[in-house]
Structures are given as structure tokens and as C-alpha cells.
Design a protein that fits this description.
- The protein has helices at 2-14, 17-39, 45-71, 85-93, 97-107, 165-194, 202-234, 238-242, 260-268; strands spanning 124-125, 130-131, 137-139, 144-146, 151-153, 158-160, 246-247, 250-251.
- The chain is mainly alpha-helical.
- It has a domain at 11-74 and 162-234.
- The chain has a two-stranded antiparallel sheet with strand order 1-2.
- Helix 2 (17-39) runs antiparallel to helix 3, helix 3 (45-71) packs antiparallel against helix 6 (165-194) and helix 4 runs antiparallel to helix 5 (97-107).
- The longest helix has 33 residues, at 202-234.
- Residues 304-335 are annotated as: Disordered.
- This is Palmitoyltransferase.
């Protein structure tokens, strides 16, 4: 037991190494740009002020989004998806798989669940002892089920999912902007140092290396950001891109694709003034999502077309005001 706890403690410590590496690189880039380039190399005061102003805007937005991507806790399913004590006891005592399957079907009748396991059974997490909402997956690193899980990112030491996917996208975008601004403003001084128009000094190494690092991160981040832009346009997670969600009629990669505009609004919300800021504006609560076709938007397990939340009255885990704007009910079908 003590050995296991020690290993887990070491694992938690080592999991922060990628974050520490990124933080060190960013802090060094701040020193190299602000002091070595702007204070020690630039001679034009107006140019120096302009560079410092824009740089600090990019730097603050990068740090803000990175912080939010790291320290925003991933959302987990509410208690409605957990088995009650009696249901859990009945499920564990039963040894026949077909009866266990029927028990889960009976429990899921009043839940907004449209996807299935590959076998067609209800998606159930033995570790968390809950019925998985659509797009929810168990993370072996976080050791819990994550709503709309995209992937576990070591560079933010966090699961990227419903609660912080917008922050992760903004982190990538501001990282690219940060690299582009550094590269474009450093390039001319890189050339001057390279051809020795500027005298050799301690600033030379920092300026030369700063351009290489910025370009290296720009190339790698651009491919990653482009891939996630494609995922947002298709309304898929990274996991769904590799393994299509299974509906009653079979696997369908575009099951949650409701059109580019509404896909975008699901992640960034309707208030466009907040799109560029790392504040949570995503639609819904992560437990259910609009579906592409009306036939799929009706849960075949729901008795008498009962809808999510109708039988429970107020729930301490529910979100105020969402009952009137249930995205799984009000669906416009695209031709």
C-alpha cells in the first residue's frame, strides 16, 4: 500500500515536468525579448515601446489561457448517472451478462443517452460505477470519467474536455500568435547579428536562439491547431476522430455534427465578445448534445418519450435555466 502511494506520488510529480519545461522556455523568451532585444539591442525608442506593448499583450493572453487550460478541473458526470446503492448491489450480485445488460438498460431509461458501446450495450464504467453520458470517457491518468473527453494532454497536465476545451484552443491560438510576433520582429535583428552588422554581445545568442525556438514551436503548434480547428468544424473529439461513436443505427462519425456555425457555438458560445477570452462560454452542461438527425435525437430507452430532467424536479447538480434551452430537444434539421 505504501509502495503504491509512493509510486503515485512520484507519478504526480513527474507529470508536471512538461509544464515546467514549457514555463521555463516561456520565461526565458520573456527575458530574451524584453531585455536582450528591446532594452539592450533596439535603439529606436518608438519601435521599442511598440514592440514591448504588443509583446506584453500576447504574453499575458498566452499565460492566461495556459493557466486556465492547466488548472480548470475537468467536468465529471453528475450523480444522476451513478448507480444507486440498491442498483449497484443488484448489478454486482448478478452473474448473467444478459441480465446485467438489462439492468443497465432499465436504469438508463430516463437518462439522455444516445450512444452505445461497440457491442451495442449501455456504456458503463466499472471503475467509476456510473453509466457514461454521451461523449464521456474514462481517463486512466486522472482516474475518473471526463465529460466530452478529447484527450489527456501532458503539456497542460490535465484532461482536455468539456470544461476546458475552449481554453485549450485559445492556448494554442495565442501560442501561435506569440511565436509569430516574436519571429516577425526578431528576424531583422537575427540577420544583422548573422552578418555581423551588430557587434557581438551577450544579446546575440539570445536573439539567434529566440528565432529558432519561435519557429520550431510555430510549426508544431500550427499543425496541432489546424487539426483541432477541423475537429471543431466537424464537432468531433480526438477520441471520436479515431473511433466513431456508436448510435442505435451503428457507428457514425458525424452523429454530433449539426453544421459549422452551431458546432462553433457549442464550443465558444453565442456571445462573440467573449470568444477571444478564456472565460467559460460553451453551451450546455456536457451531459448531452444536439444530434445530426431528429430520429437519433430521441432516446429509444426513454419510456414514453420522457425527457432529461422531467422527473427529478430541481436538481442541485443541474444548471439554472437550461431546461428551456435543451439542445437535445430543440433541433433544426439541416437538409
Amino acid at each position: 500500500m505504501a509502495l503504491s502511494r509512493g509510486l503515485k506520488c512520484c507519478q504526480r510529480i513527474f507529470s508536471w515536468i512538461p509544464v515546467v519545461i514549457i514555463s521555463c522556455v516561456v520565461l526565458w523568451s520573456y527575458y530574451a525579448y524584453v531585455f536582450e532585444l528591446c532594452f539592450f539591442t533596439l535603439r529606436n525608442t518608438l519601435e521599442k515601446v511598440a514592440y514591448l506593448l504588443v509583446f506584453h499583450v500576447c504574453f499575458i493572453m498566452f499565460c492566461w489561457t495556459y493557466w486556465k487550460a492547466i488548472f480548470t478541473p475537468p467536468s465529471t458526470p453528475t450523480k444522476k448517472f451513478q448507480l444507486s446503492y440498491s442498483d449497484k448491489e443488484r448489478y454486482e450480485m448478478e452473474e448473467r451478462p444478459d441480465v446485467q445488460k438489462q439492468i443497465l438498460i432499465d436504469i438508463a431509461k430516463k437518462l439522455p443517452i444516445f450512444t452505445r458501446a461497440q457491442s451495442g450495450a449501455i456504456r458503463f464504467c466499472d471503475h467509476c460505477q456510473l453509466i457514461k453520458p454521451d461523449r464521456c470517457h474514462h481517463c486512466s491518468v486522472c482516474e475518473t470519467c471526463i465529460l466530452k473527453m478529447d484527450h489527456h494532454c501532458p503539456w497542460v497536465n490535465n484532461c482536455v474536455g468539456f470544461s476546458n476545451y475552449k481554453f485549450f484552443l485559445l492556448f494554442l491560438s495565442y501560442s501561435i500568435l506569440y511565436c509569430v510576433f516574436i519571429s516577425s520582429t526578431v528576424f531583422q535583428y537575427f540577420l544583422k547579428f548573422w552578418v555581423e552588422e551588430l557587434p557581438n554581445s551577450h544579446a546575440k545568442f539570445h536573439v539567434l536562439f529566440l528565432l529558432f525556438v519561435a519557429l520550431m514551436f510555430f510549426v508544431s503548434l500550427t499543425f496541432l491547431f489546424g487539426y483541432h480547428c477541423w475537429l471543431v468544424a466537424k464537432n468531433r473529439s480526438t477520441l471520436e476522430a479515431f473511433s466513431a461513436p456508436v448510435f442505435q443505427n451503428g457507428p457514425d462519425r458525424d452523429g454530433f455534427n449539426v453544421g459549422f456555425r452551431r458546432n462553433l457555438l457549442q464550443v465558444f458560445g453565442e456571445d462573440k465578445k467573449l470568444w477571444l477570452f478564456p472565460v467559460f462560454t460553451s453551451q450546455g452542461d456536457g451531459h448531452y448534445f444536439p444530434l445530426r438527425t431528429l430520429s437519433e435525437s430521441r432516446n429509444p430507452l426513454l419510456a414514453s418519450e420522457e425527457r432529461w430532467g422531467e422527473d427529478g424536479g430541481s436538481d442541485e447538480d443541474s444548471t439554472d435555466g437550461e431546461g428551456d434551452n435543451d439542445p437535445s430537444v430543440n433541433i433544426e434539421i439541416e437538409s
